[in-house]
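Thread: quick sanity check before group meeting

JM: Hey all, I'm pulling together slides for Thursday and realized we never actually wrote out the predicted structure for the chain we discussed last week. Dropping the sequence here so it's in one place. If anyone has concerns about the input, flag it before I start.
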Amino acid sequence: MRELLKAAVAMLVLVAASPAAMAWTSPDARERFGLLVAESQKADDALLPLRLTERGLPPTGAVFVDPQSEAFARQLATNKRAELSGLAGIDRASLGEKDQIAYDAFRYQAEQALGDIDSGVHAIRNLVPLNASFGLHVEFPDYLSGVRFKTVEDYERGLAQLEGFAGYMDSTVDRLEQGMAQGYHQPKVVVNNVLAQVEAFLKLPVEENPFYSPVTRFPDTIGAADRARLAAAYRRIIERRTTPAYERWRTFLRDRYLPVATEGAGLWAMKDGARVYASLLVQHTTTTMSAQQIHQLGVAEVANWDIADAAVAGRVEAAVSTCRRALQLGASPVAIAAALANKVGAVARLYSARGDQYSLASQTGLAPYVVKMTQPVARRWSADNVTKAVILVSELDAAVKGQGGEPEFAIEATVKRVAELAR
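JM (edit): ok, ran it. Output follows.
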């Protein structure tokens, strides 16, 4: 969401962040919105300083901020309330169409973040912080293994970040302890995955440790004395701070947390899991649909492609029965028609083509896996029947969009006819 917002208001920020714009006493709505977004970005960068370092910029505040700390949550809430207050003073109706979209996205992001904090969901997530995919215990090593420091000051800052990270690792165990005391336990599958990552990390010698990576690629501008001093300092902090922190994780997770972790693999098995899951759904889908509704949407999408696959393969009965069932369950005729048109279009591009999937993908603009799945079927089609099928799906597109006939009847009739052509 932040990336979408940044793209939508990039020009606003460039204009509004200039000294001239700052000096204006009565900037219009567009300029004030740009100023607000620019200030919001600065506030977020202060809370997430690693983002700045990754972009080659120095942190504007602390070099490392624990994203699970109470101080982080308080500052985040303060930032989001300031954003919403600033938005309240901007007349949305006076913005252009694209700027209104950016305005809505900005407001949505602020409201969701603040809602999680005020509802207590943010605090609950901090009591169950283990994440094998995006946890800081894997992302921070990835960051240091790839970052390119240029100056001695950069390397000194890296040491400070390592110290902050070691503190984060220690406080994470404390939060897990607090969670256990309140009845919060994560699934065993998550704990085992994190444990495996920790074990693999601890097997690495210092020279292969991601935290040691920066001192294996000094730029030429850093002299021998500084290189020796910094290499020794990085080795020392690895041996005395970060490795013991990972060892503490291993001992705690293996001996204390894993035995009481939940057997169920999903959040549903955890205390307040439904609340956390609902929050994550909103965060990642930007919709208020329930998990069941999203599941049904996915099932419907799969059914649309099942119908199209059966039709172009000439499986008449399967195509028609699947289509009929999907329509009875409320599937969208427009979506089914789109899937069928897409599949017929792929057949039209491939029925006479020869070559491997990658060369054909380059020639036709189709994805290689689409070529691989479609080409065996497409080769059974004749030029005449391909032409007829293309005309049928073109007429169907008009029918399902209200240009004549009953959409459901048109869908079933076209699916059947295309399947018959494929025989």
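AS: nice. The first helix runs from residue 2 to 8. The two ends are 47 Å apart (CA to CA).
JM: adding both to the slides.
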